[in-house]
Write a structure and sequence with these properties.
The chain has about 475 residues and is α+β, with helices and mostly antiparallel strands. About 15% of the residues lie in helices and about 30% in strands.
Length: about 475
């Protein structure tokens, strides 16, 4: 149990001027040092951590998650003040790829993934219809796949404000099965939505392959190792629906129907970079929004840099902001090429700081209309094929986005955002900004698997070390 925590000293109405803002004085690292926080022992219900006045806990269970969608209509699980801390449990939607390691004996996970012939622990999985009239997959149709915990409301947050989310800590969720004490596990699916899928060399083609990874939770090892892989075979869910491909989240894998191949990726150590693939606010444009494509208020950005010590800034679109977390990863490479990362349940602690719209003038947050990432050494701007796809693509946006995305469009959006960032926060001319972008800004492919593809632009703070 943690002692009462006090937020890092911060004047919520002062975001610093344009020059000061880029000197790195607003850092999540400062919050970590000041708070000296350790996540509390898990508690069953959302609410204040006993013995504290500004630290809340939101567990993951069948009553606290929304599966596969964001919604402005969801009732907040807790409401916090600006400066408060909240610890949120996040479950991977791939836990049933190996239920023995990722579900068994874990009450929260068991309640979420429960599925027998009569009912599912969480019925809706996606933003589609509750009656599966489109594809026959199940409630929600899998149009959105991530198990999201939340939402958390911030008192006083209104459209036009900015929510600063300081990521204080991120830890793997320990396996509850006593057979695997001290371990955590994750799943990587090389799936039909992966960039590689239609470009395979070896037979059988096509195929979906799941690799199960082991992560150490004792602190002795900071890398993951592969345990085994298997090819997806048609799986019949408890309702009797056959899933020939990975088309609906949380389908239990019957391991008697697959052939496990052990000894894969022998002697390979994958560095652990725990982070949240999905972290963001509720959009305003629709009542139910597919969790897969990222957008201007965050969501499924899939940037491995969104981990411990980083800070995210999100534009607020609805009253209360409504923050949710999910799609937790143990490790991921830029592009998430095969479709997934090491999908692994995590617990994160965040400090939430609200910046009101009327206090943003003259600061780097003024007019911010996209998710902005700050680390100790860098600023990272996220470009998307369609930065506001729900507005730009019209009534069929949530389906059309999957066929219209491209790296070219995402690159152009990242360029435009970086140009604006440099011109407004550094007072550079357009010519100066373009030159600096060419010689010192790194662009990378965030992901090419989330419908709305992403390119990120990274600028190092040390470029401005020569300022007086």
């Amino acid at each position: 149990m943690v002692e009462e925590t006090t937020p890092a000293a911060h004047d919520h109405s002062d975001d610093h001027g344009r020059s000061d803002f880029l000197k790195g004085t607003l850092l999540a690292g400062a919050a970590v040092t000041a708070a000296s926080m350790t996540p509390p022992a898990a508690q069953a219900q959302p609410g204040m951590v006993p013995g504290t006045r500004n630290h809340y806990y939101v567990p993951a269970n069948d009553k606290t998650v929304h599966w596969g969608y964001f919604s402005k209509l969801l009732k907040p699980l807790v409401e916090v003040n600006s400066g408060d801390f909240v610890t949120i449990e996040a479950l991977t939607h791939h836990a049933n790829d190996d239920a023995e390691r990722m579900v068994k004996d874990d009450p929260g996970a068991e309640s979420v993934f429960y599925w027998d012939k009569q009912r599912k622990g969480v019925d809706r999985r996606g933003a589609g219809p509750m009656q599966p009239t489109l594809f026959g997959r199940g409630a929600g149709e899998g149009l959105g796949v991530h198990v999201c915990t939340g939402p958390v409301a911030v008192k006083g947050a209104m459209p036009g404000d900015i929510l600063e989310v300081r990521i204080v800590d991120v830890r793997p969720r320990p396996c509850a099965n006593p057979r695997f004490k001290g371990k955590s596990f994750g799943s990587n699916a090389a799936a039909w939505w992966g960039f590689h899928y239609k470009d395979l060399l070896t037979d059988p083609k096509p195929r979906e392959v799941i690799t199960i990874y082991e992560i150490d939770t004792t602190g002795e090892r900071n890398w993951a190792k592969a345990l085994y892989n298997f090819r997806w075979t048609p799986q019949t869910d408890p309702f009797g629906i056959v899933h020939k491909i990975i088309d609906y989240p949380g389908v239990p894998v019957d391991h008697k129907t697959v052939q496990e191949k052990h000894g894969v990726l022998k002697n390979v150590r994958i560095p652990i970079r725990p982070h949240f693939g999905v972290l963001g606010l509720a959009p305003a444009e629709a009542d139910l929004v597919d969790s897969i494509p990222p957008h201007w208020v965050g969501g499924n950005i899939d940037d491995w840099r969104i981990g411990k010590g980083a800070t995210m800034y999100y534009p607020v679109a609805v009253p209360g902001a409504l923050l949710s977390a999910g799609d937790s990863h143990a490790a991921q490479g830029d592009s998430e090429l095969a479709g997934t990362a090491i999908e692994c349940s995590l617990t994160g602690t965040f400090q939430l700081v609200l910046h009101k719209k009327d206090a943003l003038a003259g600061t780097a947050l003024a007019g911010l209309e996209y998710p902005l990432l700050e680390t100790q050494d860098e600023w990272v701007l996220h470009g998307f094929s369609y930065p506001k796809y729900l507005q730009e693509l019209g009534a069929k946006a949530q389906s059309d986005i999957y066929s219209k995305s491209s790296v070219d469009l995402a690159m152009r959006d990242a360029f435009r955002k970086m140009r604006h960032f440099l011109m407004t926060t550094r007072d550079l001319s357009e010519d100066e900004a373009i030159s600096l972008m060419s010689v010192a800004v790194d662009y990378g492919i965030t992901q090419v698997v989330d419908g709305n593809w992403g390119v990120h632009a990274i600028i190092k703070k040390s470029l401005f070390a020569g300022e007086a």
